[in-house]
Each structure stands twice: as C-alpha cells, then as structure tokens.
Amino acid sequence: MMRPTRAAPGGARNQQGRVSRPTHSRAQIPARRNAVRTFAKKPAKQRNIFEGQRPWVEVVDGKPVSGPDLSCVVDGVKFPNPFVIGSGPPGTNYHVMKKAFDEGWGGVIAKTVTLDSSKVINVTPRYARMKSSSNQKEVIGWENIELVSDRPFEKMMQEFKRLKDEYPDRVLIASIMEEYNKDAWEELIGRCEECGVDIFELNFSCPHGMPERRMGAAMGQDCELLEEVCGWVNDAANIPVWAKMTPNITDITSPGKVALDAGLEGLAAINTIQSVMGVNLDTLRPEPCVEGYSTPGGYSSKAVKPIALAKVMSLATMIKEKYDGGKSLSGIGGVETGMDATEFMLLGCDTVQVCTGVMIHGYPLVQNLCAEVQEFMTQHNFESIDDFRGASLPYFTSHTKLVQLQKEAQERKKKKVGLKSDEEWTGDGFTKETESMVSN
Ligand SMILES: Cc1cc2nc3c(=O)[nH]c(=O)nc-3n(C[C@H](O)[C@H](O)[C@H](O)COP(=O)(O)O)c2cc1C
C-alpha cells in the first residue's frame, strides 16, 4: 500500500516507486575529474591516519574538495557521499556522531535504541579479536557480545535533535528495535521522527542478547512475525525505512522480500555472524571470557566481507528481479578501504556502512574511502556512482552455466584449462595442478 504521508513535505515517489523527499540544498562543488590528490598534504593537526600509505582527500561538509562527485540520492534523501557509519559503538552518543559528521561521513546510523534501556546491561570484556598469524597488529575478525544502546531513550532523543539542529544537511539514521508490541514500535517511531531523523533502520538482526524477548535476529528469522511488525512500522513511519537483515539464515532473500512487500523502502545487510571467537588453551575457557564464562556473539570485520558480499548479491538480484530495482540496498560487512566499498556498490549497493573499521582505524577513514573510490572512478571514466552501481551483478550465473561456458571456450581455443576430471589429480603434481585452476 502506498503511504500518502511518507513523501511529505514536498516529496513524491519517483519512477522506481522510491520516496523522493526534497534534496538538501548545498552549493555543488564541481566534479573535477582526474583530480584525486594522492598522498596530499594536510595541516599537521589534522593528518590523515594513513598518510603516506593510502590516498586520501580532504572532505568538507561530506563532500571531497576535489575529484569525481560522490553524492547520491537514496529513497529521496541526499547523501554528500555514500559512506555511512554502521550502527554500533561509533554512533553511541552526540560526541562521537558529531565527530563522524565533522570528519565527513555521508551519514550516521546511531547505536540501536529501544524504549526502555534499563533492561540493557552490558558486560566487559565484550570484544575479542582474530589477528593475522603473519602480522599480530592486523585485525581480521572481531567478535562482540555487546547489546543495543544502554543509554536512556530520552537522552538519545535530545542528542538526535541537537545533531539535526547543528547538521541539518547531514543524514541521521535511527536504528530501532523493540519487542513484539505494536504500541511500542509506534511510540518509538513517533518519538524519533519528532527529533528530525531522516531514515529508520530496523534492527532485525542482532544475533545475541535479546532472543528471549523475540527481538533482533530472533524477529528477523521469523517471517510471520516480521511481516506483522514491518506492516506496523510501514503504517506508522513518515520517513523511509530500511530493514537490517541477519546473515544467520539459509536464504536471506525470504525475510528480505517480506520486509519489502510490507512497503519498506530498502534493506541493509549484513549484521554480525553468530560466532565463538575461540577457546583459551591454558584456562580451557571460551573467549570473550566474563568471570570464566562466555556466550556466542556476533562476528564482523575483514573476515566477514566475502559472506556479506554473497548476501548482498542475493538481495540485490532479488530487488532487481522482483522490484525492478525500485528498492534501496545498504551494504555492510568488513569494509576498510574504498576498494572494499566499491565492490559492494558494483554488486548493487546504494550506500556502504562501516562499523568495526571505524573502531579500529578511527573516523578519518572516510577520507581514504572517498579518495580510493574516486581513483577507481577516474580509472574507469565514471562520473557518478550511478555509472557503476550494480555493474558486476549480471556476471553471476549458475554452476551449470559455468560448465557450459567453459566447454564452449575450450572448444573455441582447443586449449586445456585445468584438469578434465578428479581422476587426473596426482600426488606429486598436486600443487601445480591446483595452481592451474586458480583464477587470480
Ligand atoms: C561492537 C559492535 C556493536 C554493534 N552494535 C550494533 C547495534 O547496536 N545495532 C546494529 O544494528 N548493529 C550493530 N552492530 C553490527 C554492525 O552495525 C555491522 O552490521 C557489522 O558489525 C558488520 O559490519 P562491520 O564489519 O563494518 O563491523 C555492531 C557491531 C559491533 C562490532
């Protein structure tokens, strides 16, 4: 059902059926192609964290001061760049969200709020890292057993309002989560809208902490429950709504379709993957260890990127086929570089979120993301994100089709590619035979 009030004030749905709200007015900085400043100098006080190692560009009010234009309009909301702080510690309070806007993030998704934060009690330690075996400084995986925001709802609302008053042209997204209770969802939505937030992200995906209250992933895995809750939210909200999906499910497109069929504007994926970081071989206790015990948590950071890309690919394909591309998609999972972000956009994402990457590298990371995506665009002569968003999606097919394509290619080239069958593997030539079938 089309929501008559969602597009107001002054907005309408565009041809794809997305809500088009008035875009924020800001003088456009002309896109100067081939102008990404690699290793540019910055005043000593504001040095980029990767200066000398990675390209970066100065970002003012969310816009890179040089290079191709990164702005985008998603569900009628204008983002100065597609990089968004993912819900979590980097969006816990006014000070950190202000820092994110000051460093240039296109949008911020605040830490998930619920009406009654007194039920949220966190423990410490609540994080555990997986490090590279060759470089102990490099974090490749991150587990957390952190719950949603433990800050009073009223305080969070005051801070949302203050941020929107101070940064009216920047995108503030409220991540919300509640129990199976229509009144609670309606109250949460009404209160957040009063503060001026631009978009809602529904947390249907936190894998730990609240299953006994049928919240988070417990709700996101139950399509019947989801259909009802998304219906309530869709009727109550006057701004665009994204449903954040859990990867802890066999087919992520099933709950995705339920959320979009209920009328929501978009999807976000992925939240963390259920995990146990490891077991301490001296104490025999699992990590992260709290008073000798642990509980399964959520896995994030670099290691989850391939899984996130697969889930995003499934959702983007479903959106293309079932909704003719008329729904939005926000990609999340292991993004630390502009190249990572570009891969998500090539698979159909409108925006790209970063959570753990900011916890490890800090807020100035956005300057590197912008410069690295600009370098990619310059290299390929792309003028806007729309020029390449979803461009790699058509190159997925079935395994049967791969076999057929290879057979045809071999016949054309009369050339052997790899082993013909498992019969040909040998013990002595094993590594060479493996190498002959690797693509990169
Ligand atoms: C410490 C921590 C806390 C998080 N808290 C939330 C949360 O409150 N709400 C939510 O929707 N996602 C939460 N997430 C999940 C992230 O938003 C994100 O979906 C996930 O970590 C994968 O992205 P990343 O690899 O960039 O971190 C949290 C992640 C971490 C690491």
Q: Can you give me a brief rundown of this structure?
A:
One of its GO terms (molecular function) is NADP binding. With 440 residues, the chain is α/β, with parallel strands linked by helices.
Work out the number of β strands: 20
CATH topology of the largest domain: TIM Barrel
Task: Give the overall silhouette.
Answer: globular
Helix content: 25-40%
CATH class label of the largest domain: Alpha Beta
Summing up helix and strand content along with how strands pair, one would put the structural category as alpha/beta
**Count of separate structural domains:** 2
Which strand order spans the largest sheet, edge to edge or round the barrel? 7-8-11-12-13-14-19-20
Q: Strand fraction band?
A: 15-25%
The name of the CATH architecture of the largest domain is: Alpha-Beta Barrel
Question: Biggest sheet: strands, sense, closure?
Answer: 8 strands, parallel, barrel
Quickly count the helices. Answer: 12
Average per-residue pLDDT, rounded, comes to 89
Evaluate the radius of gyration: 23 Å
Distance between the termini: 47 Å
Unreliable residue stretches: 1-5, 7-36
Note down, in words, how this protein is organized.
It is a single chain. This protein starts with 11 loop residues before the first strand and ends in a 5-residue tail after the last helix. It has helices at 94-103, 153-166, 182-194, 217-220, 223-236, 253-261, 305-323, 338-346, 356-361, 365-380, 399-413, 430-435; strands at residues 12-13, 19-20, 59-60, 63-64, 72-74, 77-79, 83-85, 107-109, 127-131, 139-144, 171-176, 199-203, 241-244, 266-269, 273-275, 278-279, 286-287, 297-300, 328-332, 351-354. The chain is of the alpha/beta class and 440 residues long. It folds into two domains: 12-395, TIM Barrel, CATH 3.20.20; 407-435, no CATH class. The strands form six sheets. Strands 7-8-11-12-13-14-19-20 form an eight-stranded parallel barrel, surrounded by eight helices. The chain has a four-stranded antiparallel β-sheet with strand order 9-10-18-15, with no helix packed on it. The chain has a two-stranded antiparallel ribbon with strand order 1-2. The structure holds flavin mononucleotide. Flavin mononucleotide binds at residues 86-89, 111-112, 142, 144, 146, 148, 175, 203, 206, 244, 271-272, 300-301, 304, 332-335, 354-357.
